[in-house]
């Protein structure tokens, strides 16, 4: 049953999305890594967490204070945990992150891909000079270039996230809108308790 469950989880793994994620990491870090999306290559590149920590440090400088280069299990898992903490702070929702063992023990590499794709889509951050700002309130305008788009002042991956469409109306516009609503209600002579009727009342 456990073997079947693992098979079902691994069947969701997309080599195409994994390769896209690795290409994005290569673009951000400038490291000459193998971007093949196979599970074996994806796992070998990321399992110790060092590349992931270097990635988020380039997105938000000094977000990981110390990257463990030791290959001891608990040190590697500490790296992965540090990456996850930063990813959440950068806006990746909890349901799009993964458990440390998903990567370290290769239990669910698909969830790792999902996390990287989510991180690559975030638009909450921008770069101001060489500093990356975390709060949306600190965002300052700047040039936008593309990998597909630039998030955190860095290339992004995946579809562009929906942005809030905030409209600010003047007091005059608000009054005009209220007048239209009042006029509409005032002209509905066919209205009854059962609702507003358009045209003649239908008799049954």
Automatic annotation (TrEMBL):
Coiled coil: none
Summary of the function given for this chain in its UniProt record: Thin filament-associated protein that is implicated in the regulation and modulation of smooth muscle contraction. It is capable of binding to actin, calmodulin and tropomyosin. The interaction of calponin with actin inhibits the actomyosin Mg-ATPase activity.
A GO cellular-component term linked to this record: actin cytoskeleton
Keyword Repeat: yes
Keywords for the protein's UniProt record, in alphabetical order: Actin-binding, Calmodulin-binding, Repeat
PROSITE patterns, alphabetized: CALPONIN_1 (PS01052), CALPONIN_2 (PS51122), CH (PS50021)
Species this protein is from: Timema bartmani
InterPro entries membership: Calponin-like, Calponin/LIMCH1, Calponin_repeat, CH_dom, CH_dom_sf, SM22_calponin
Keyword Repeat: yes
Protein name: Calponin
Family that this chain belongs to: Belongs to the calponin family.
Domain annotation Calponin-homology (CH): ranges: 15-124
BP terms from Gene Ontology: actin filament organization; actomyosin structure organization
Alphabetized GO MF terms: actin filament binding; calmodulin binding
Entries under Pfam families matching the protein: Calponin, CH
SMART domains for the chain: CH (SM00033)
Lineage: Eukaryota, Metazoa, Ecdysozoa, Arthropoda, Hexapoda
